[in-house]
Amino acid sequence: GGILELGAHNGYWASLLQAAGLPVVATDIEPPGAHEWWTQVHKAPAEALRRKEYRSCGVLLLCYPSPKAQNGESMADECLQHFGGRYLVYVGEWATGMTASLQFHEALHTGWKLLKHLHLPQWGGSCADMRIFRRCKPSTVPGPVTRAALWTCDVCGERGEEGTLYRCSMTRQLVVCSQECLDSCALWHQALKVANHRDPLPPSAVTAATDFRPVICADAQSCWSVFEALAVYTPNEGRN
């Protein structure tokens, strides 16, 4: 049935998939001018998923959907509400508040089966990746999810209790559950710092107390408010 991308902006991701031979339709609620397109982008809101011309698309692609707005609206939540297909491809940060909403991630965790998780090349200070999901049958949907169950330790894979998982506040690309796990991946952590243009510390100086903060997820009013909460520095006053 093809792939439908909502929130495609200038159609860059859709153009890459089309170049690979995949049938993709790119849409956005406010597409830019045609001179900025990588491929044609049709004007369509989330409700368009119910339109006849789009119902045949069995795969929904969401790339970096915006966090929940001040008015409480979330494009990603609306897409899940209106999409009737079986597969969803989500590119963004997993439950950090920087992309989509907490409710969106909880819905994916409980009502969709993760088929594939792909790490992506990215700018320093970003922890976005790609996840491919298949909708669960009603009989296989698990029970309610606790917020802590959204994350796992990147080293041992364990799911921590509330407040026991920690994200590196310098690179944002490493989550650990204990000092033991942090010690076992000290060289990896140091390499992430180098890749993110941070001054690397010797492994013995890397401690959860100085470099890590509890994993959080909030329905942020803006990406900047989340980044400010996680940053190791104080943003300039009045910065937009």
Structure description:
The chain is of the alpha/beta class and 240 residues long. It is built from eight helices and ten strands. The chain has helices at residues 12-19, 52-55, 75-82, 102-111, 179-184, 186-195, 208-211, 223-230, and strands spanning 3-6, 24-28, 41-43, 59-63, 87-93, 112-119, 128-135, 166-168, 175-176, 212-214. Residues 220-240 have low confidence and may be disordered.
Key structural traits:
single chain; 240 residues; alpha/beta; seven-stranded mixed β-sheet; three-stranded antiparallel β-sheet; 8 helices; 10 strands; globular; disordered C terminus
List how many beta strands DSSP finds.
Answer: 10
The helix content, as a percent range, equals 10-25%
What is the C-alpha radius of gyration, as a whole number of Å? 19 Å
Largest sheet: 7 strands, mixed
Strand content: 15-25%
Give the end-to-end Cα distance, rounded to a whole number of Å.
42 Å
* Strand order within the widest beta sheet: 3-2-1-4-5-7-6
**Global mean pLDDT:** 78
Q: Regions with pLDDT < 50 over 5+ consecutive residues?
A: 220-240
String of helices and strands: EHEEHEHEHEEEEHHHEH
SS summary, helix count: 8
Structural classification: alpha/beta
Shape estimate:
globular
